[in-house]
Request: fold
Amino acid sequence: VSNGQATPLGASKLREGVNFALFSEHGTSVTLCVRLGTEGPVKEIVLDPQKNRTGNVWHICLENIPLSGVLYGYHVDGPRDKNSRFDKNTLLLDPYAKYVEGRRIFADKTQKLAPHWGTFDFTLSEFDWEGDEARTRVPEKDLVIYEMSVRGFTKDQSSGVAEEVRGSYLGFIDKIPHLVELGVTAVELLPIFEYDELEFQRRPNPRDHMVNAWGYSTINFFSPMSRFASNGGGPIAASLELKQMVKALHKAGIEVLLDVVYNHTNEGGNADPYVTCFRGVDNAVYYMMDANGYMNYSGCGNTLNCNHPVVTEFILDSLKHWVTEYHIDGFRFDLASVLCRGTNGAPLANPPLIRAICKDEVLSKCKLIAEPWDCGGLYLVGAFPNWDRWAEWNGKYRDDLRRFVKGDCGMKRTLATRLSGSADLYNKNQRKPYHGINFIVAHDGFTLYDLVAYNMKHNDANGERGQDGSNDNFSWNCGVEGETGDQAVNGLRARQMKNLHVALMFSQGTPMMIMGDEYAHTKYGNNNTYGHDTSLNDFLWTQLQKKKDHFAFFSKVIKFRLKHPLLARSEFLSNSDVTWHETQWDNPDSRFLAFTLHEGKLGGGDLYMAFNAHTYAVNAALPRPPGGKRWLRLIDTHFAHPEDFCEEGVGGLQERYSVVPFSCIVLIAKS
Reply:
């Protein structure tokens, strides 16, 4: 044992041994706990504050210990005051641990209370990225994002992957061809940081039947979810397999974005503490506190103190680790408005963390996406501090598109604004249309099918008496609640899903869809399935086979967007780029919108689009096509496959076109 050094934080290899460094400003004693393997005895080494503390960092170096297979954690003690939660008897995970060892099989209830240890492997050879660093990045304007779950993608038996790799990073690789066929250019992975999927089952409660399938409850911010390794391989295998998955996606031309949760941790609030790390290491630094205890802007009991200098540096270190170690291309920040609050919870105009991310040499080159709201009411859609770098989930786009397509009054002018890239929100300073992430549905809420099949949420299975999940869904069941054998209702639902998909992919801005919408996945009206490790959240490959026509339409629309220059612009539309064929802007009862995008110097051919949300057909007068060209029908969602999308175009159109109720059309001008 030697004194060690204060940097870097975490476990690191020195010439003379393995160094351990832990920040704890308010801790008064620190004990390092070391274990050789999962079955060995625990050795406790008390750190001397005179020799093993530099500033607020406690450190020690252990000589002649194995460079792999070692588990470690800490006991930390300190004052008992209103902002501290020290308990010298609780084993604490190192905040900077690069790997976490705990239970190895997902949702293994025999290991429900297994502790979480940090570990390391300094014997690993450098991963062969095969030149991945030099790959061509997807321009932001060409992103088509597919929000998805690593585990849910191949967990179901119908995936056809070997049983030992189902629900794993390796299993994911086998199904990448599906993503290529669909046409998406980026995946946005639900959280893959280490989390405890059995956290709801620690004590009796109304949710103790649930398993955390989504992962928005982080235990450690540096380690990949170890139970996404194949065949119970553990944390080191998980790290290697994640790198293999990322490399395979990049080879397929698909970028990898991570959904990251820096707004709170797994450790709960005042009433339901779950001490695994930050509470016990230095609660007053890592969390926002007031006279009543934990501030709760996350809705999950606690709020990370993101703009405290120490926590800001911690988050930057975490993000850079994922970029440099795993070649991650970007991040979507859950409840990102929390990151814009000061240490007292007040909103900041220029949050240090947000600015630091924008200015960092590594992170400034990444895709940065904010979910610009939190559970404390800080709604920043269109106003998120951005330094012209951050994109935003456009929640207004979601709500406005849903309302128009289902036939709400007074939505025409708003629809035009959203289809045009939401210039009212993003045409400021040097921001671009692609800084608005357009979406109709996301993981939390209805699927696309449920949006057109349910008027009400059906969340009884969640154990919260139906009180969880949003009540403001702007959905329409097309006449019958839930599943039905009525062919007319099912036909209307299919048409509405196509209408929404066309609107999404033909809008200016960056489109995002969710896993399963390409085959009309249903969660049977449950709009908050975070706790169901079941078919509610799994990709059902047998359903994909049954819905080939639906998939074909979705794929063709995506691929057309990517190849037509009018649909993925870097600049906002000017008056010369678009003609609105409208005289009813101020008529709240008008539910029909038609316009032409002009090719100008971009080429590709003019596009005429019309959306009809009336209950009757509109006999629309078509504008005169450009000189020497004629209108060809590309899309009419009223038709069944394969007539709903005709890539070569269907001619013989007259001067008027009957746009049937609840449908949309797209025409293209060709010679």
Observations:
- The longest helix spans residues 487-506.
- The radius of gyration is 26 Å.
- The mean pLDDT is 97.
- The first strand starts at residue 10 and ends at 14.
